[in-house]
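User: Hey, quick favor. My workstation is busy. Could you predict this chain's structure for me?
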Amino acid sequence: MVFEGLVGLGVAMLLAPAIAEYAKVRHKAEKGFNWFAMAGAWFIFAAAFPLVPTINSFLTFGSFSIADLFAWIGWLVALIGTLFVGYEMLVEK
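Assistant: No problem, here it is.
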């Protein structure tokens, strides 16, 4: 598999707005798809921390690393994007 873990999730989140644009549905839920793209950026940023062991070990507090924090933020942003897309696609337009 080419993309695994957080990198694959980040790439999938970044591809969601592009696929929605191709399917001509992005205009219905522009704000939600922007949140998806932002979540993809957070996931890729979280995946980058373990690649630099010095920074990762310096910013680890017990068993909780800074990469975990960015992954949690990515999940929250993805959840907000999902709610926006669901609301805007089904209710508003």
